[in-house]
Automatic annotation (TrEMBL):
One of its GO terms (molecular function) is metal ion binding. InterPro entries: DinB, DinB/YfiT-like. It comes from Cytobacillus oceanisediminis. A divalent metal cation binds at H49, H137, H141. Belongs to the DinB family. This is Putative damage-inducible protein DinB. It holds the Pfam family DinB.
Amino acid sequence: MENNRAKKMYDYHVWANQKVIQHLKQLPDRIYNETVNSVFSSISDVLIHLFATDITWLETMKGSSFHDTVKEVERRKSEASGASIEELEVFYDSLSKEFYSFFAEQKDLERVIITEHPQYGRCEFILADLIHHVVNHGTYHRGNVTAMLRQQGERGIPTDYVYFLFEC
């Protein structure tokens, strides 16, 4: 597979998640699990949600059934729930390797996949669009983390796409 924009966006997603995780590892341990009044009850809950959702979309891209996807997400979410930030980092790293392995097997990320959803019925997606969705979803929730850090008196870490480009 040639290098393309969808894969570059996923590279950004991995980079941004790593930035957030590295930042959190430098903060007091309580920050990661502390209850806050926000969209999620803790930063750890946000990161577990992001992890589980990334699994959902990878399984969808791979052609797994809705039932099998839900089962896989619940299994892996259960493994990651309660993990320390260091342990969650390992889960994230493993998942990104799965994404890259999937990408390497694809001849065309612009191809259409078809999936069935119990609520939405038959859905057609272009793989690259789903990759962009994964990245956008991650960006949204990394913003949640920044807001939650500020609520706890801590600073966030810049993860805008342009900072990724500065480092490339």
